[in-house]
Design brief:
Belongs to the kynureninase family. It is an enzyme of class 3 (hydrolase). Pathway: Amino-acid degradation; L-kynurenine degradation; L-alanine and anthranilate from L-kynurenine: step 1/1; Cofactor biosynthesis; NAD(+) biosynthesis; quinolinate from L-kynurenine: step 2/3. With 414 residues, this protein is of the alpha/beta class. The protein has two domains: 7-43 and 300-408, Alpha-Beta Complex (Aspartate Aminotransferase, domain 1), CATH 3.90.1150; 71-297, Aspartate Aminotransferase, domain 2 (3-Layer(aba) Sandwich). The protein has twelve helices and 13 strands. The protein has helices at residues 7-16, 45-59, 66-69, 75-84, 100-112, 129-142, 156-159, 182-191, 283-297, 301-323, 350-359, 383-399; strands at residues 33-34, 94-96, 120-124, 147-151, 164-170, 195-199, 218-222, 235-239, 329-330, 342-346, 362-363, 365-367, 371-375. A seven-stranded mixed sheet has the order 2-8-7-6-5-3-4, sandwiched between helices. Strand 12 and strand 13 form a beta hairpin. It is globular, with a radius of gyration of 22 Å.
Length: 414
């Protein structure tokens, strides 16, 4: 990337950065270096005006008329078609709705209805827990011999055998940032007659994802990380067109009905992607999430990925150069091609170290038992941010500031 690591060299990289113009579109607090966009993205400045517009005008004045006049009713599909462009999907294959966990429940159940003779789901054991929990809850309801076969990265393809109904994996590991090979694993999944499900929470808005190019069956993800949709903003569901109308999800609410305003007694599933909807949608959250999507749609996804790799590489090199004596061990892959837009290090005192760093206005997060995790959002993270973050960490470690009692008190959210 560069031979000499210096703040001046980072400043030069920022001058050459084709994405630098996007930084001014985000409300980053003065003096803060925000390296937690892999957990919650920064607010787009335009989101505030959009929220006020929805509350004051569309809700306050339009009231119920806004379902038609402001086109509230089509928000899940409209946002879904926008998001589809970022993940290699076609129009009418994605809806933005509900939470990632609920959406995973839907698509996992839909997949199992197409492979009723098989009882095994393959998952990553060290996955973000909610995926595993939702699958466990579904299988507890189904009973009848269903099981989850947990495997880790290097053993994944060997776990995919001809008794498997579905392979349900997170594309980028939430702790390590390691990327699963979507194309290869999906091909192996189909080879044994199973269906593929991918969680894109740490991919959408950070990587160039190609769901249809990889022949993926189903996918889910969120909009509040790299897509900057706001805290708790809705997730999304992808269902390949070849499965629409065949794979039926079990949360059969009225928005997934073929004709919601016919108010029929019995459920008839919508024929396309709309069948993945359930109940009335959170209009405020959807409207604000659209702002982040619109910003990202103006960016070049290839440029985003290229900058992501440069930012994470710079961070790893600076940590190696300046912090190796302080007990940090790299957890993320060294190879940028195998790494998402985040870097994790383990440290025996990871929690207080991160709290001390946050007190110095460098915001990352901690994942038990010992991971300090840093996310790099190419639309607003600069190369100078990376330099300054490491510089402040060096000062904390040299002075052992993390030993202060205030940094060793665990909060509810880490």
């Amino acid at each position: 990337m560069m031979n000499e690591y210096s703040r001046a060299a980072c400043e030069q990289l920022d001058l050459e950065d084709s994405l630098s113009e996007f930084r001014d579109e985000f409300a980053i607090p003065e003096g803060m270096i925000y390296l937690d966009g892999n957990s919650l993205g920064v607010r787009p400045k335009a989101a505030l005006a959009r929220a006020v517009e929805v509350v004051e005008e569309e809700w306050g004045v339009g009231l119920i008329k806004s379902w038609n006049q402001a086109d509230w009713f089509s928000l899940p599909q409209r946002l879904g078609n926008k998001l589809a462009k970022l993940i290699g999907a076609d129009d009418d294959e994605v809806v933005v709705t509900d939470s990632t966990g609920l959406n995973l429940y839907k698509v996992l159940a839909a997949a199992l209805t197409q492979r009723t003779e098989r009882k095994v789901i393959v998952m990553n054991g060290s996955n973000f827990p909610t995926d595993n929990y939702m699958a466990q809850g579904l299988l507890a309801q189904l009973g009848d011999g269903y099981e989850i076969r947990f495997a880790e990265h290097d053993d994944m393809e060997a776990a995919i055998t001809e008794d498997v109904a579905a392979v349900c994996l997170t594309h980028v590991h939430y702790k390590t940032g390691r990327i699963f090979d979507m194309a290869a694993i999906t091909a192996k999944t189909h080879e044994v007659g199973a269906l593929s499900i991918w969680d894109l929470c740490h991919s959408a808005g950070a990587l160039d994802v190609d769901l249809n190019g990889c022949n993926v069956d189903f996918a889910v993800g969120c909009t509040y990380k790299y897509l900057n949709g706001g805290p708790g903003s809705p997730g999304f569901i992808f269902t390949a067109k070849c499965h629409q109308g065949k794979a039926l999800q079990p949360l059969t609410g009225w928005w997934g009905h073929a004709d919601p305003f016919a108010f029929e007694r019995d459920y008839r599933p919508a024929p396309g992607i709309n069948q993945m909807l359930s109940g009335t949608q959170p209009i405020l959250s959807l409207a604000v999430a659209e702002v982040g999507l619109d910003i990202f749609l103006r960016a070049d996804v290839a440029a985003v990925r290229a900058k992501s790799k440069k930012l994470t590489e710079l961070f790893i090199r600076l940590m190696t150069q300046r912090c190796s004596q302080y007990g940090f061990t790299l957890v993320s892959p060294e190879d940028a091609e195998c790494r998402g837009s985040q870097v994790s290090f383990s440290h025996t005192h990871g929690y207080p170290v991160m709290q001390a760093l946050i007190s110095r206005d460098v915001v990352g997060d901690f994942r038990a038992p010992d991971n300090v995790r840093f996310g790099f959002t190419p639309l607003y993270t600069s190369y100078v941010d990376v330099w300054d973050a490491v510089d402040r960490l060096v000062d904390i470690m040299e002075k052992e500031l993390w030993r202060d009692s205030e940094f060793n008190q665990r909060g509810a959210v880490t």
